[in-house]
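Q: Got one fold?
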Amino acid sequence: MRKLLLSFICVLAVFALNAQVTENFSDYTVGGKLAEQAQAMGRDYWTTWASAPGGAEDGTIAEVDGNKVGSLTYGNDQVLLLGGKTSGVWDFSMKMYVPTGKCGYFNILANFAGTSSTWALQVYLNDEGTNPGAGYIHAGASEAATFTFDHDSWVNFYIQIDLDTDNAVMYVDDVFVYEWVYTAGSFGAGCPRIIDAMNIFPPTEGVSDFYIDDIVFEAASDVIFETNFDELTAGAYVAQSYPEWWRTWNNTPGTAEDGLISTEQASSTPNSAKLAYDTDLIFLTGDQTTGAYTIDFDMYIPNAAPAYFNLLHTFAGTSSEWAIGVHFNVTGSDFPEVGTYVQQNGEITNFTYPDNTWFPVSFFVDLSNDNATLDINGTRILEWQFSLTENGGAGLRQLGAADFFPPQTGALYYIDNFVFAGVSGGAPSIAITPNSINKEVDVNSTDEIIVPVTITNTGSSMADYTMWPIIEGEAGNTESFTLTYCNSDVPSQNYYNQSTTPPLMEFAAKFTLADYCEMVGTYITKISFFLPNPTSDNSLTGRVYGQGTYSEPGEILSEATISGSGIITNYWNEITLPEPVFLDGQDFWVAFEGTQPVGTSGLMSTDAGPVNENGDWRRTNGGSWGQLHVSQPELGNGNFMIKAFVEGDVIPGCWFALEGETSGSVLGGSSATIDVVLDAQGLAVGTYNATLYITSNDPENDYVDIPVTLTVKPIGIEEYTVNGVTTIVYPNPATDMITVESNKDINSLQVINSAGQVIYSTKAAGNQVTVNTSSYSSGVYFIKTTTDAGSKSIKFIVK
């Protein structure tokens, strides 16, 4: 089945990133100038060779067989800007109509710069009005290939350019014409590996006259699933026939909830999928979180019947997260309003559609850039930030499913020619600076050292990143702590199940280094939560997850299950972890999972608040995580009653902190900065080490580690080197004592007063000597050290 992707992004900022264009001229005015009208509508991708829209170079809009088209004749010189693409696989298609006795021409430019432009491909139809029906191309060589076409008929051109492999291929009316190395240029003289523009130019006075229509330039698609339902038997069911891709809301394929294969209507004969009231058909898109995708299908609504479909960020029954809802002809109080409209981010966008006829529906979802579009019957209905939810507010940047749901009595519609495809279009490319951090500070300093870490994305799609520290050091005193956001042992309220089924619920508190920096080096040995009522299956699992993203934990580090009499109602339930979890600087999620009873019996309690940002994470049936105070603010005023008990030998950890978005996204051509904050307060003289880890979706740079060193120096340090042996003396001036350190053993050390008298002497002292100066009079003294490299004297002062 052939498929024409209609999705595109029309705003200029996004156009620069994706350069996707669809043009059928349906909303232009006949007789008006092409580029002039386009730019007035914000379509800045149309111009002319001399950048003079509205002038003689600008083509006009005409009508052919009832359709609006672009009309080009001698003197016109039209240019379609294609965004300067340098990577990815790109599809270009266009229709051209050449009347008898006339000729046509267009080209692809690797570089559009007036007379300094570089041609990658040139296409001639009936050159100079001779050789009717004959065409040829310059592609890597002069007249590299020929083709035939019909005058007074629409000719279909399809060109695919793979910039990653430097390959291009061309078809005319679905017939292969030629394949060549793209950077060979039109005549073989070479050109940049760039797709910059298309130039449509009637070259010959008197005979150059033609029309253009249905232009599409987009990232190439990779069909993941497609069907026209024609291979099925009438009376079969959709979800039952395609169990890998389709299901129903309550997972009851082959029932009234399933779509019915019907011959009553068909866009491609003989079958389509019939959806009537009580149907609730789900197409599973695989919980995609990166890349770009299209969902295209044809739709037929008879006699203004009610209809509805949506996209879901996540499909989890009543805990699903809706991305967008599309309503047709709905009535009654169960909907945001009556009529035909789209609801997204809590806003209503009305539109029209043709009744009693087939029309195309096309979604484009670019997860890498968090952008999406909806076209209905060839008209852009909406462009939006995809991660926003249908009802409003932030949601999950994930494409989980599409739901086809006839919403009320009398609802009926049909779908056909369904295609789900992935779209190529480049990748993120990040650079991170600096690649190491090494700072020094005097002991007892109260100044913070701030080092910006910058993540720059030079790629063509959004870069997702997560960063966290791992603290290193020698263990000190053995201590024990309780790690919790809970402010009381008495619950304020219970989290109840508001559905009619007992879902599997998981509740968690996330702890970052900022929450436990004084506990680094210890182990989580036990976890505890307050259970108000029993679970329906009388079994609970406690677990600790490691570093993940902002809204998703990482791998399970340790878990254990309690059940039966081991569960205590209306009290704290403590679980000993089979594998203690080492606190080293990364994020940890302490979670509890169980089947939530129906009704007023709660599985988790909250304190009286105030709620911490990370104190009330939860998810349903293994779906996406969310914060209770964000999704249900009427309930989310407290922290889940969760505790972790830790014990062990403490490593200094509060000297390291991160400020900024430690997990986030960076658009192509943009950067993000996160501050590493080093604080020596309370640190003894010595060297402190950590490693900052950064992961991203950059396929070439997905894991980066940055070593971090903070050196705390003695106050008043004196340093000297003799034959490669370095010795330091501190503090200077001294009061009660002075210390001498060397990177080699000190064979002997003397303290000499200003009269030249030796007042202190020691031999074979090791590499560090401390001299008590509390009995010395104020004044100038000298320390003389002897190592295998020789002797050196240094002056110091006693106050």
